[in-house]
Each structure stands twice: as C-alpha cells, then as structure tokens.
Amino acid sequence: MAKQINNLLIPNVSKVPGQKEVDLTNRLNGSKESKKKAIEFKGLLEKEVKSVGEKHGINLSIHAARRMKERNLSVNGDEFFKIKDAIQKLKEKGGKDSLVITKNAAYIVDVANNKVVTAIDKENMGSNVFTKIDSTVFVD
User: Fold this and answer.
1) Rounded CA gap, 140 and 138, in Å?
2) Is residue 22 domain-resident?
C-alpha cells in the first residue's frame, strides 16, 4: 500500500517481493563446522602471510606491527630495502638478534627468520635500553 504525502506517492518498501529469510542459528551458536572453517581460514591466512614475507624478504611480528601503529611509523620502499640489505649483511657476519638503526627508526630484528620483532621511533630511541642483541648496524 502506498501513502501520499504532499502529492507525492511513497510506496511501501519495508518488504521486497522475493525476500528470503536466512537461518543464522548455526552461525550464532558457533557450530563445529563453522569453527572448523574459521580454523581452516586462519591457517590459510597465516600460510599466505608467511609466504609473502618469505617472498619479499622481511616478516613483521604482530608486536612490531602494533608498535609501528602506536608510534606512527611507516616503512616506505626505501626504508624497506635498507632493512632488507641490513639483514643480509647481518647474516653474512653471523648476527642473530640485531639492532638496525635508520634515519627514521630503530628495529630489533630476528636475522635468521628475516623478522622485525619491534620498532622504536627516533624520538624515543634515546630513552630505551636495548637488550638481548648481539649486533648493531647503522643504515644511512
């Protein structure tokens, strides 16, 4: 039924013809099948993230990603390749857990896994104590 307001005909569109009802009870109750699919999806996602990291040479830990977001740090292409080259140099010299210092920030790196473990912005670098590192590289 349509209503008329100020000589305009307004149709009732509260229910569209052919509208289907969807049963969400299994999804809301967390069925075994949906949990299985969620676990499978998580596994595939983690595999893909690892694959991309291996392909491009640097992985970013969840902690490092969080710190970078908190500290408004971003890694542009230039910074990325500086870190990547530093990791390669550290591998050649036998570095394991290393501090990579660039113009923008400092990064603690797990050299064997090509993983940035945490990141510190330039302003807060001086007030930090870096422990459990075996090497340091300054990148210009």
Assistant:
1) 7
2) no
Per-residue pLDDT of the chain (140 residues; tens, 9 = 90+): 555 555 566 655 555 556 666 665 555 456 677 778 888 888 887 777 666 656 667 888 999 999 999 999 988 889 989 999 999 999 999 999 999 999 999 999 999 999 999 999 988 888 888 999 999 999 98
Q: How far apart are CA 70 and CA 74, in angstroms?
A: 11
Tokens of 38: 């969620």
pTM of the model: 0.61
Neighbouring CB atoms inside 10 A of 107's CB total 28
Q: Which of 73, 71, 47, 42 is nearest to 59 (CA)?
A: 47
Q: Do the domain assignments include residue 45?
A: no
Structural domains in the chain (count): 1
User: Would residue 13 count as lying in a domain?
Assistant: no
Element of type H or E holding 115: strand 115-121
Nearest to 80 by CA among 64, 110, 102: 102
H or E element, residue 33: helix 32-56
Pairing of strands 135-138, 97-101: parallel
